[in-house]
Amino acid sequence: MAKDYTHIILADDDEDDRLFFTDAFDELKITTKVSTYNDGAYLMEYLLSEDAVIPEILFLDLNMPRKSGKECLHEIKANSRFKNMVIAIYSTSASEEDIEDTFVKGANIYIKKPDSFKKLKKILNNVVTTNWQYQANGLNKNNFLLRL
Amino acid sequence: MKQNYKKSWFVKIIFVVSLFVILFITGVTYKHISELSKTQQEVIQTYKLNVELEQILSYLKDAETGQRGFIITQDSLYLEPFFKSRSKINNTFAELKALTKKNSKHQQSLKDLNGLIEARLHNFEVASKMALRDQTDVEKFKQVFFEGKAYMDAIRKKLNGMLALENNLLAERKESYENTIKFTPIFLYGLIILTLVLLYIAYAKISSDLDKLRKTNQQLETFKEATNQAEIINKHGSWRWNVEDDKFYFSDNLYRLLGEKPNAFKATIANFNSYVHPEDRKKLEEQVAQMKIEKDLPFINYRVVHKNGNIKYLKAYGKSISNLEGKEQLIGTTTDITDEIDYANTLETRNKELELNNKELQAFNYVASHDLQEPLRKIQTFLSRLEDKESDNFSESGKKYMERINFSAKRMRNLIDDLLQFSRTNKSDEILVVKDLNELLEDAKQELSEIITKENAIITADILPKVKVIPFQIEQLFTNLLSNSLKYKAIDKRPQIKISYELVAKNNDFRLKNGTHKKYHCFVFKDNGIGFDAQYTEKIFELFSRLHNKNEYSGTGIGLSICKKITDNHSGFIFANGTPNQGANFTVFLPA
């Protein structure tokens, strides 16, 4: 597997959000390869296929048709094949239950979708450049929700 | 009850004592009467004795007279009384013997007398024979005649002696009798008085007991009526069951519970069962059978069907006890719990409605938090993209419109966020944990770090205690209070917020008059902001209440309402105080 660029996957049913996401990465000066999937079912279909390239970071929307983000998270965490994959929850809401739930299920970070493109870029840059191996040790519920 | 038993003993004792006194009086009276009759007997006997003795003398005189007649006339006719007197004297003598058999002196005298009489009579015969031979003028006859007189004198003397003795005896007896009966009337009279007194006491006692009994009966009547009324108002009825003779007693209201008039049917288990709901009949019968064995059973619930078809829910309890005669008796109470059941059903329905409402509210929360935020967020993001990429192509007014759109969008976001926060600030499923409030204050400051840095605000705080709280809510409270002070800062001053802490007793602060705890943690957030007029101290906590035009200050009117809700959730209080242009302070009380 070529290590020239970072593999990133976004699963989100919202077309606009997918657009913002890819636009943001286009403008960031990082070498990334971003693929997007329209819902959880498509995502899992790909990830579980034989020739899938396991991404470094998966951005997971919670509210998706067919298969929700939480279901995907559950399946991914149950499969050792994805144990090194960083999972970032990427959701409109930041309700206590959702944050608690996904933290317990093993997501690495919770991102509340920002309301400006600038912030989005800042957040994505931050997440991609974080050393997750190091960060994982200090992970706790208080810094689980990303604040900038 | 025990005291009454004692009282009845008292009456019994009085009666027994009275009985003994009367028996004693009877005995004494009997003794005296028999004494009296004995004395009388003796008096009679004395007189009889006198008479008999006189008689003897008289017979002797008759004989003497007859003898003298014969001597003078030689006519045997005159001898008649002499012969007759002989047998008469014998008869009288036998009488005298019988009369004096108890008196040895008399007996002795009688013996002597008998000898004298014999001698005298013999003398008569000798004299008579001599007269017959006409030897009356001889010396011997004279001597015989003289002897006769001497005998006669001796007899008289003897008789007189006996009479004197008898009279003495009579006098002695009379004296002893008088001595005996001298005190008897007084004694008897006293005893009778005593008996009467005792009887009167007994009577008074019985009559007062009767009075008490009557009063107790009256109280019982009153109590019974009160019980009846209580049964009506409490919708319960009572019943008694004498197990041995299988007799039932139902109270009036028990009939009413079955939808009937009192005593509408004979009190039997079969009649009662005919009102019991068919589905519950078996259960009730089993329970009743069980009650006979176990004496004390838990409540039983069953239904009854009134004749008009109404179904009522009854609850019954029974206990087996033994009555005074040692007979087994089941005593029970049955109460109508239809209202309770209805109430519980209504409550359940209401609860379900509430649950449904809550679910709807949660659904609304979700819609607000997710679905409403999403288009808003996109509007904002697209706006930011427009500003970044296309602002060069806008005219001045176009840019101004953009700015206004942006401002409105931000405001809408704030409103949605705050509303959500407000609706989420619920107590029900949150658990209180002991938390260091210094940490929560730090977190709140962290949350507001951007604006704190921007405003160059000075925030100082006392050392805060550890308190049992819902941590994220208290953090929210601190955040909102700090944010409020920063929002309403004075334009010309550097914002300064001072947080002080002290532990206060409930009684030392009039604002805690409605508090339920003895001690409270008191936190004061004091700022140097624009303050507010004292008239708004209550209004400031109302939802959507704002004291300023929204163009001047960016508040949504929800933040302080959330603070109020949080302190309410913690059974605490929040109070606001302000002086226009000098600052505001917010006092938070949390139970210690």
Key structural traits:
heterodimer, A: 148 residues, alpha/beta, Rossmann fold, 7 helices, B: 592 residues, alpha+beta, Four Helix Bundle (Hemerythrin (Met), subunit A), Beta-Lactamase, 4 domains, five-stranded antiparallel β-sheet, five-stranded mixed β-sheet, 12 strands, 14% strand
Description:
The complex is a heterodimer of chains A (148) and B (592). In chain A, 43% of the residues lie in helices and 18% in strands. Chain A is an alpha/beta fold and 148 residues long. Chain A has one domain (6-144): Rossmann fold, CATH 3.40.50. In chain A, helix 4 (96-105) links the parallel strand 4 and strand 5. Chain B is an alpha+beta fold. The longest helix of chain B has 72 residues, at 2-73. Chains A and B meet through helix 1 and helix 5 of A and helix 9 and helix 10 of B.
How would you summarize this macromolecular structure in one to three sentences?
Chain A has 148 residues and is an alpha/beta fold.
Question: What is the topological layout?
Answer:
The complex is a heterodimer of chains A (148) and B (592).
Chain A: E1 6-11, H1 15-27, E2 32-37, H2 40-47, E3 57-60, H3 69-77, E4 86-91, H4 96-105, E5 109-112, H5 117-129, H6 132-137, H7 141-144
Parallel strand pairs in A: 1-2, 1-3, 3-4, 4-5
Chain B: H1 2-73, H2 79-99, H3 104-132, H4 139-182, H5 184-234, E1 236-242, E2 247-250, H6 252-257, H7 269-273, H8 278-294, E3 300-305, E4 311-322, E5 328-336, H9 338-390, H10 396-424, E6 433-436, H11 437-447, H12 449-455, E7 458-461, E8 466-469, H13 471-487, E9 496-505, E10 519-527, H14 559-569, E11 573-579, E12 583-591
Parallel strand pairs in B: 7-9
Antiparallel strand pairs in B: 1-2, 1-5, 3-4, 4-5, 6-8, 9-10, 10-12, 11-12
